């Protein structure tokens, strides 16, 4: 989110698009790609029953139903100068459970997707190690492996909402996050091979993309739970997620999870790269900026109802949502339907894992009233997700990054839903 | 040739490694290869704030103006003002504590080394690592000159890159003060809480949300 700084808040400057996402879904909970046809409904025999369907291998690599064609990543064109240095958003509103399908994981590139030939992939480890070494992809796969779920959230997720409700969508306000199972090697294992000097305090991770993206990671985190991953959700990393290998920095801001990783250098001080000085630092009201704010704090979102997910009818519905914390497990999520005056604790659905998305639901009866939906997450450290006002009071509105505030969805009497700001 | 079972304890469990070859000195898995000096030099391009890693070379702003005009100005403007959505590179001094902060190399970046490192590895956008070392010193010097940090004749080199004092070097603070806003979970209000529920604004009214085609 490099180019979302001041321009992203100047909402009157670029009215490049008219209307809003929610308008199209006024009359439908899901905007399926086809109309109803009663000839396919009881008591009639549906047309797909009366003829043979495709055989095996019609689609060697399977794809979603054509009726799910609206479940896609989307970007906000006016945020950035070019798609090669830009971001798109995961359609959280359409997902169930906690696993993000690989093709729907949001993308954030700084100079486009590197197309790395895995045969030419090399990971170099140099600097304050006993042996400067180079590993092939095959080498990495021969190390003891680890398989773990982690969320990856961009530090700028929700960054456009600091000054007010700006984007009318769950996808656009919370979708810079995904949650997959990574397969890879722990860096603590990899470093057994190179050895480490006693004064190695920082690791510089470097990508092989055209941005040569670099970030400094303190050694304590490196040895705690960082890994080099080559697979996500059971298959090779997608190119846009760093194929053939990426750095995994559990619970910390996504910018540090170097994709297309080519080099790890160990040193005795941070490297102060462009990404950790001019970007991903949080400007406070006094003009000073917080640096090295790595942890993604506890946060939650109601994925449905949401601006993309209108309520179609009165009666029983399930409020569904996701919660996560970079400090560990989610222990509780409370939901309010009256803007925070009264709260009910939602049901958490397992598996509940550290630094992973956690699914919550809460049944409710809609009587056609206006509602102000909110959720607040609580993690195992006892931390409670704050309101936006609480964050603004401490940080002002210029910090761009690390907005983990409670959002509010207004359910209108006609069932449509709006992203609103309360005060 | 030896054969033995080596038990390696890992922090997350126990793993058994059946080894049939003698491990190299100090190595646990005998995987990968030792990197040559040439291989490391070719890839180790980062430059630290103290100047460590800066490649041998030099450049001044006078020469940098021409290189900048040729390789940078198309996106960043002749005077670093930024074209369209491309970033401005100079200006913004005194703006950081205002409602509209402008974060440029001159107003915000704390280290000149970061400018050199980033330009050398990632610029020009789409033609990364095509600038020579001297061209990178020249462009860096030109940007520093435009922000009144050095004179036009100042020769920026690998020796003095780490000594350039940037105006905002003291504009950052550590460590991370978070959590900076939290309640105690035991004291959380559940019923009849004080909450402000006036709607101040709706995203729908701003009308900047992308709409699907068709």
Can you describe this structure?
The complex is a heterodimer of chains A (423) and B (214). In chain A, 9% of the residues lie in helices and 29% in strands. Chain A has six helices and 24 strands. Residues 1-29 of chain A have low confidence and may be disordered. Chain B has helices at 37-43, 61-71, 73-76, 112-122, 133-146, 203-206; strands at residues 4-10, 13-19, 33-34, 58-59, 156-157, 172-173, 199-202. In chain B, the strands form two sheets. Chain B has a two-stranded antiparallel ribbon with strand order 1-2. Chain B is extended, with a radius of gyration of 26 Å. The N and C termini of chain B lie far apart (70 Å).
Question: What are the SSEs and their pairings?
Answer:
The complex is a heterodimer of chains A (423) and B (214).
Chain A: E1 74-75, E2 86-89, E3 108-109, E4 123-127, E5 133-135, H1 137-142, E6 146-153, H2 170-174, E7 177-186, H3 187-194, E8 202-207, E9 214-218, H4 219-225, E10 227-232, E11 235-236, E12 246-248, E13 261-267, H5 274-277, E14 282-283, E15 289-290, E16 299-304, E17 315-324, E18 330-336, E19 344-345, E20 347-349, E21 358-366, E22 371-379, H6 388-395, E23 408-411, E24 417-422
Parallel strand pairs in A: 4-13
Antiparallel strand pairs in A: 1-2, 2-3, 4-5, 6-7, 7-10, 8-9, 8-13, 10-11, 10-12, 14-15, 16-17, 17-21, 18-19, 18-22, 20-21, 22-23, 23-24
Chain B: E1 4-10, E2 13-19, E3 33-34, H1 37-43, E4 58-59, H2 61-71, H3 73-76, H4 112-122, H5 133-146, E5 156-157, E6 172-173, E7 199-202, H6 203-206
Antiparallel strand pairs in B: 1-2, 4-5
Helix pairs in contact in B: 2-5, 4-5
């Amino acid at each position: 989110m490099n180019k979302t700084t001041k321009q992203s808040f100047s909402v009157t400057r670029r009215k490049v698009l008219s209307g809003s996402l929610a308008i199209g879904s006024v009359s439908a909970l899901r905007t399926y790609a086809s109309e109803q046809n009663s000839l396919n409904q009881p008591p009639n025999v549906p047309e797909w029953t009366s003829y043979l369907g495709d055989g095996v291998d019609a689609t060697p690599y399977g794809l979603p139903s054509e009726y799910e064609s609206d479940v896609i990543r989307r970007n906000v064109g006016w945020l950035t100068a070019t798609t090669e240095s830009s971001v798109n958003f995961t359609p959280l509103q359409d997902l169930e459970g906690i696993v993000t399908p690989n093709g729907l994981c949001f993308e954030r590139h700084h100079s486009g997707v590197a197309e790395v030939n895995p045969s030419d992939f090399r990971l170099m480890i140099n600097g304050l190690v006993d042996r400067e070494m180079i590993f092939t992809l095959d080498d990495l796969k021969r190390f003891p492996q680890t398989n773990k779920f982690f969320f990856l959230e961009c530090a700028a997720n929700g960054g456009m909402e600091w000054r007010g409700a700006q984007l009318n969508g769950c996808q656009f306000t919370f979708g810079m996050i995904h949650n997959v199972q990574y397969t890879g090697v722990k860096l603590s294992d990899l470093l057994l091979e190179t050895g480490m000097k006693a004064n190695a305090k920082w690791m510089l991770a470097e990508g092989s993309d055209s941005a040569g993206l670099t970030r400094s990671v303190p050694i304590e985190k490196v040895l705690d739970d960082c890994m080099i991953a080559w697979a996500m959700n059971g298959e090779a990393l997608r190119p846009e997620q760093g194929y053939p290998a990426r750095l995994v920095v559990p619970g910390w801001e996504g910018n540090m999870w170097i994709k297309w990783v080519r080099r790890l250098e160990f040193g005795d001080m941070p490297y102060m790269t462009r990404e950790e000085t001019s970007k991903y630092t949080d400007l406070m009201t006094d003009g000073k900026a917080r640096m090295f704010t790595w942890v993604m704090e506890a946060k939650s979102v109601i994925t449905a109802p949401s601006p993309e997910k209108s309520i179609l009818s009165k009666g029983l519905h399930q409020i569904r949502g996701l919660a996560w914390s970079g400090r560990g497990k989610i222990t509780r999520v409370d939901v309010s339907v009256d803007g925070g005056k009264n709260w009910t604790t939602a049901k958490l659905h397992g598996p509940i894992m550290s630094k992973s998305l956690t699914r919550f639901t809460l049944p409710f009866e809609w009587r056609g009233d206006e509602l102000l939906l909110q959720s607040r997450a609580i993690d195992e450290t006892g931390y409670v997700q704050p309101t936006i006002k609480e964050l603004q009071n401490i940080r002002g509105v210029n910090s761009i990054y690390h907005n983990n505030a409670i959002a509010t969805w207004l359910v209108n009497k006609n069932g449509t839903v709006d992203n609103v700001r309360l005060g | 040739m030896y054969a033995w079972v080596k038990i390696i304890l890992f922090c997350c469990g126990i793993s058994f490694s059946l080894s049939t070859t003698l491990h190299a000195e100090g190595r646990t898995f005998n995987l990968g290869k030792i990197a040559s000096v040439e291989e490391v030099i070719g890839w180790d391009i980062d430059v630290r704030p103290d100047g460590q890693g800066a490649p041998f070379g030099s450049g001044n702003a006078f020469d940098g103006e021409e290189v900048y005009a040729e390789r940078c100005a198309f996106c960043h403007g002749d005077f670093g003002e930024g074209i369209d959505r491309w970033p401005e590179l100079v200006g913004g001094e005194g703006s950081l504590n205002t409602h509209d902060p402008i974060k440029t190399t001159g107003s915000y970046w704390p280290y000149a080394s970061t400018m050199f490192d980033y330009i050398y590895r990632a610029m020009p956008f789409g033609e990364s690592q095509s600038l020579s070392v001297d061209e990178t010193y020249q462009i860096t010097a030109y940007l520093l000159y435009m922000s009144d940090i050095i004179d036009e004749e100042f020769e920026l080199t690998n020796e003095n890159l780490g000594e350039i004092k940037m105006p905002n070097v003291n504009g950052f603070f550590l460590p991370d003060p978070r959590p900076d806003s939290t309640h105690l979970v035991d004291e959380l209000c559940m019923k009849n809480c004080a909450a402000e529920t006036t709607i101040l604004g709706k995203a729908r009214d701003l009308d900047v949300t992308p709409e699907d085609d068709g």
